Amino acid sequence: MQPRFLAVALGLGVLTGCDPAPPALDQLTDEEPPPDPPARLIPAVDGAVEVWPLGGGLSLRVTAHTLADVPCWTVVTSGMPGGELALTVRRDRGASLLKLPELFAALAPATAQKPCTPGLLSQLVPAGTGILGCGRFYAILYAEPLAMEGVEGTESAALMVLLDAKEAELTYAVGPLRLLARLGYQSRFYPTTPWADPQRESLVADGPGTLAGIPTLFADRLTVTRVDDDTLRIVADPSQLVALQQGVPGGMLRLFALASRGSHGTFVWHPGLPPTAIGPVGTGRALALNGLLLGREEARSVGFVEDYVGITLPPEEHDRFVEALITGRATTFTFDGEVKHVHVEPFTGHTLYLPHERSERSTGAIHLLTPESELPARVEVEALAGALRTLSERIEAFCAERPPPDAGLGLRVLWSPDGVEVGVASRTGPPSDPAWCEALVRAVQDVPPPPTTGPVEAVLELPGPTAGSS
Questions:
Q1: Share of the chain above pLDDT 70, in %
Q2: Of 303, 290, 284, 298, nearest to 342 (Cα)?
Q3: Which of 292, 314, 346 is the last residue of a domain?
Q4: Are 111 and 228 in contact (CB under 8 A)?
């Protein structure tokens, strides 16, 4: 997979080989559309659904519903070559859906060439009346699917977040995660405001912050998560960071990240706002950061800057940090200060963080190795979450009595219609105590599996050994 660069900022230098901008779609015109056939009736009351065939195997399913007390239409594609898409629009703001068939027909060949993955920004030529016929929205920022009750297909369709032309420009300067978090903060909806509202407040007034002049790299498989008050986890796909082999221009680099799908909230930053975060009520403490500031200086430090974590390391240690990112080797860096541990890990799949208070006996992250796009067809999400939580509790109880013999261990479980496979995985080589591993497997093997229609695989990190354990 080639690296996807969202922004290149001039100032201290430029990373080479970056795309100058996302490709523009064909301009939408102000010409009156042909008369709507009966199949393009717009549903008017909650629960009403209309299907609009577009030809070539592509169709739109339009559902009227209410989301967080906001009356909405949600349009979900069927047959989009690069993966299904979902667009939600407020019904009470004068927006028109009549140009959407034209928009999705134009998107179809584009998505066949470049799927609309989270963080991708598509811009329209800023002329005419725009996407909803209201003269406001000319860009689409794609986000993770957001399941909406009563709206078929939203659990697996990429969410389309509409921006105006100036907000699209701002995305290059501040990163997609900040834009999505600010939208969510604006309407108090996590992880972002899904509905397009032509009357909402613009985000441009927030400004780009103080870091816009730093060379910038974006990878959609890079996540920076504050797992605990003093612990950060940076997960990266090395194949997207090959540009780092050229070095860090000017000694400072900004890496835009996206939120881990398993994080419990997102930091929100804009001028004048005290440090805050958005997230569902009653969940855990794993919070997504907008990215990483990586500096190469003699001084050694780590701390929070706006909604980033800033890490400065001496040349030799800096090179080791970059090497960990581009080779996928798991490495831990320790610091004195508000952040004490920074774990750099390779991207291995969907990562979850358990929403509970951690202790030295708590399990760490849960890595789902099954592709996220295939999970809904293989297992019920609630059943999977229940099985993982039971496994985690069983592991914690076992490790409280018999501490793990090594660091870097995890319990691997594979559920499938053919049965269950359970074993102990290690990052550092064969476990030093096979009998301990066998005892752990016996302790969890009677945990009821979730019903599956295909293989579902996960690794649950185990707590590290305590002093004196063997």
A1: 83
A2: 303
A3: 346
A4: no
With respect to residue 16, please indicate whether it lies within any of the assigned structural domains. no
Beta bridge partners of 289: 224
Residue 276's SS3 state is strand
- For residue 317, report the phi and psi dihedrals to the nearest 5 degrees: -70, -35
Q: Give which of 391, 141, 358 is closest to 233, Cα–Cα.
A: 358
Domain enclosing residue 338, as ranges: 216-346
Tell whether 220 and 341 lie within a shared domain. yes
**Is residue 46 domain-resident?**
yes
Contacts of 307 (CB under 8 A, 6+ apart): 177, 178, 181, 267, 268, 269, 289, 290, 291
Domain tally, the chain: 3
Domain presence at residue 242: yes
Q: Where are the beta strands (DSSP E) in 297-340?
A: 301-305, 308-313, 331-334
Is residue 359 included in any domain, yes or no?
Answer: yes
**210, 9 in Cβ contact below 8 A?**
no
Q: Please, are residues 339 and 292 in contact by the beta-carbon 8 Å criterion?
A: no
What is the structure's pLDDT at 20?
Answer: 32
- Contact in structure between 221 and 333 (CB atoms under 8 Å): no
**One domain for residues 360 and 340:** no
**In this predicted structure, what is the pLDDT of residue 71?**
97
For the whole model, what pTM was predicted?
0.72
Say which residue, 6 or 182, is predicted with more confidence.
182
Shared-domain flag, residues 305 and 428: no
CA 190 remoteness from chain centre: 13
Structure tokens at 3: 């690296």
Q: Are residues 385 and 306 in the same domain?
A: no
| Amino acid found at 334 | T
Find, among 345, 339, 184, 344, the residue nearest to 266 by Cα: 184
User: Among the three residues 202, 235, 251, which one is the final residue of a domain in this structure?
Assistant: 202
Residue 257 sits in the same domain as residue 178 = no
Q: CA dist 205 to 75, 202, 355, Å?
A: 30, 7, 34
Q: Interior CA angle at 456 toward 234 and 266, to 5°?
A: 30
For the stretch 386-397, what's the b/e string if a residue is b when 16 or more beta carbons lie within 10 angstroms of its beta carbon?
A: ebbeebbebbbe
**13: confidence class by pLDDT, cuts 50, 70, 90:** very low
Same domain membership, residue 294 and residue 357: no
Residue-wise pLDDT for 173-184, tens only, equals 889 999 999 999
Task: Specify the pLDDT at position 423.
Answer: 85
Distance CA 270, CA 272 (A): 6
The reported pLDDT for the residue numbered 229 is: 82
